[in-house]
């Protein structure tokens, strides 16, 4: 019995060296990439990575006298080759496990990003919670070169800004790699990605002076939604159409809008709750589509003569708000059906869920069926709060 115990202990002792982390890497051996940009020129991929300065990782106070990130670039027939080629200029191997954003230049996005996504989805190293974006009207390299105020690391600015804008203003959508691929593979839907623009002098934005001025020479701004037909960019939604998209696909958590007053002026309303559903069915071989939107709002600002202590006035404001929201959603549907002739709202997916048998006869040519389909839009608005004032203090001054 003692011999068996000794044999077991010896076996356990031999296993101890195997319990280490097989892929452990030291920080001083890595160049931590927090953002990646992918462009294409002369039939070669041009990859840009934004690497955090080592001092920003090891010292909470950050580095002194130097910019917090460094840009490395390389070209290659494939993206994988371009990334490895960066070791010719970087003293450390690029480490992509902490990516926060991947930006595609608009020219590449119009050509197609499917091949670029293959590396991102195949490589085990990066997590899949980073956001995908399109650099509107410029290259990804230019967008990643801009230094940003408030957030020292521009990749963090991109990540946090798109989250904040999505939650508080709703003109953008935060899309991860898995979400994009899911919409790409869905026969009844097409992907969208948020756009990012360089406002101002992009070249000056690459200098440290850009974050030392109260008015930066260049800033990064979220710029609407990029519409894709599968993996190819086909156009852009403006801010109003982008909001309509988020309303329709149930992606509005909080935002602010305005409603016209009967005699001129506007009332600003804050959306505190929004619930949308998209329905689809087939009757007589033709799709019947509908969007239903239920919204709760608070009154935030009044720029006209309006007595909000009266129930009738509040009800009239609710009807006006319903009309405004219906126009916004219909504008997005119009862009999908007439301008881009592409279903990026998921109506086809709704038809598939409701009637899989009928969907089989429509799936191969769905976008053409969608183009001529009648879409019903129903909006219900309930105003919950009107603020601490019934009338504006200006009205009391006129009495």
From TrEMBL:
InterPro entries attached to this UniProt entry: GerAC_N, Spore_GerAC-like, Spore_GerAC-like_C, Spore_GerAC_C_sf
Domain of life per record: Bacteria
Sorted UniProt keywords: Germination, Lipoprotein, Membrane, Palmitate, Signal
Pfam families membership: Spore_GerAC, Spore_GerAC_N
Main location per the UniProt record: membrane
Spore germination protein N-terminal domain segment(s): 23-197
Membrane-spanning residues: none
Subcellular location: Membrane
GO CC entries: membrane
Gene Ontology BP annotations: spore germination
Endpoints of the signal sequence: 1-22
Residues covered by the Spore germination GerAC-like C-terminal domain: 223-387
Membrane topology, record value: Lipid-anchor
Keyword Membrane: yes
Family: Belongs to the GerABKC lipoprotein family.
Official protein name in the record: Ger(X)C family spore germination protein
Organism: Cohnella zeiphila
Lineage: Bacteria, Bacillati, Bacillota, Bacilli, Bacillales
């Amino acid at each position: 019995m003692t011999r068996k115990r000794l044999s077991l202990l010896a076996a356990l002792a031999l296993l101890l060296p195997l319990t280490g982390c097989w892929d452990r890497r030291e920080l001083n051996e890595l160049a931590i990439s927090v953002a990646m940009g992918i462009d294409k020129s002369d039939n070669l991929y041009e990859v840009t990575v934004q690497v955090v300065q080592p001092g920003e990782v090891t010292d909470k106070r950050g580095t002194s006298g130097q910019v917090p990130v460094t840009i490395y670039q390389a070209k290659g027939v494939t993206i994988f080759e371009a990334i490895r080629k960066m070791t010719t200029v970087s003293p450390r191997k690029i480490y992509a496990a902490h990516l926060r954003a991947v930006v595609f230049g608009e020219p590449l996005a119009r050509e197609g990003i499917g091949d670029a996504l293959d590396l991102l989805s195949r490589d085990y190293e990066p997590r899949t919670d980073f956001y995908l974006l399109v650099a509107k009207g410029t290259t990804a390299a230019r967008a990643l070169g801009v230094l940003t105020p408030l957030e020292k690391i521009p990749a963090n600015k991109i990540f946090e800004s798109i989250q904040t804008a999505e939650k508080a203003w709703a003109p953008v959508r935060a899309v991860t790699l898995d979400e994009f691929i899911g919409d790409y593979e869905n026969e009844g839907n097409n992907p969208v990605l948020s756009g990012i623009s360089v406002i101002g002098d992009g070249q000056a934005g690459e200098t440290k002076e850009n974050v030392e001025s109260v008015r930066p020479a260049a800033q990064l701004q979220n710029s609407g939604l990029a519409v894709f037909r599968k993996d190819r960019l086909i156009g852009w939604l403006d801010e109003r159409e982008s909001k309509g998209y988020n309303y329709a696909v149930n992606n509005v958590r909080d935002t602010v809008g305005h409603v016209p007053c009967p005699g001129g002026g506007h009332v600003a309303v804050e959306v505190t709750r929004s619930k949308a559903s998209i329905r689809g069915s087939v009757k007589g071989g033709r799709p019947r589509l509908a969007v239903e939107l239920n919204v709760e709002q608070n009154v935030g600002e009044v720029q006209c003569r309006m007595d909000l202590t009266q129930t009738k006035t509040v009800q009239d404001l609710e009807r006006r708000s319903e009309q405004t929201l219906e126009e916004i959603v219909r504008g997005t549907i119009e862009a999908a059906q007439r301008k881009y002739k592409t279903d990026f709202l998921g109506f086809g997916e709704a038809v598939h869920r409701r009637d899989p048998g009928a969907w089989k006869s429509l799936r191969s040519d769905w976008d053409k069926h969608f183009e001529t389909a009648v879409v019903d839009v129903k909006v219900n608005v309930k105003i919950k709060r009107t603020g601490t004032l019934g009338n504006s203090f200006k009205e009391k001054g006129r009495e």
